[in-house]
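Input set for joint prediction.
Command: fold jointly, output tokens.
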Amino acid sequence: MIGKHVQALLTETEDTFLIPAANVATLLYNHPLEHAMLILTNVGYSKIPVLDSEDHLVGLISLADIMQEISGLTGFDMQRLEVLTVADVMEVKVPKMTEKDDLETLLRRLVNEPFLPYVDQNNVFLGIFTRKAILKSVNHMVHEIESRYWLVEKEEERKAQ
Amino acid sequence: MIGKHVQALLTETEDTFLIPAANVATLLYNHPLEHAMLILTNVGYSKIPVLDSEDHLVGLISLADIMQEISGLTGFDMQRLEVLTVADVMEVKVPKMTEKDDLETLLRRLVNEPFLPYVDQNNVFLGIFTRKAILKSVNHMVHEIESRYWLVEKEEERKAQ
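tokens >
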């Protein structure tokens, strides 16, 4: 469990770590791969969320996913970019966060995922939680905690009583 | 400054956060781009270090760097992969860590970089520090700190004296 003082310090600089959907580059599942390739080449993120036309989260896609799909024995077959869509290569097993998940869960899952999509109860995409945002708050917390609090060992205190 | 108790908890589960060079996928600066493309498609990391033949760190390269280089008005020109080398597209401004840098510096720099290469005084590549490794230790720290210590507000203590 994360203690209340630590939790307070972690959430002090921003109460939510969410980057809202409006600020996140996404792709539609039925976009042609050629378009996906252009977006991923220029967006500055290696992997982005894939939505359907009603903003439901349906997958994640990266440049590597696309290149793997079109790579063959004799190199990369760029012709296939015109006939395939995002849905053909996206990863569909997407780890995600909902409003039921707490800060503890978020911190644990971000060990294995560079970012986590956040969805409502109908799986509508609301934004992402990133390692970057969390690390900003971690920096704040580790700098502040010992300047604000004395850390008194619980063992020693018990001994002293 | 990071306090001594926090620092001790952060470094308790592993004294170094380094992933040694032997376990990191790298490319040589004179590799053809076609080879770089294959490695980056299959390695599972979106960006990897570039070395010279004596293991000096000379750059970083990602799939997006390559695709940007070969993209033109009429799509991607795969022919260019055969004539270009890694050195032609790699990023040469590489944020990195040396033995002079402490944990505080590492934590701060990882806010903006997914990983940081670590080099010796001759710029020989020794490994990388990742957000993943740091977040593992952060999880340990935030769980342990309030079960091991009472956090006593310094203000209140001063008032009580």
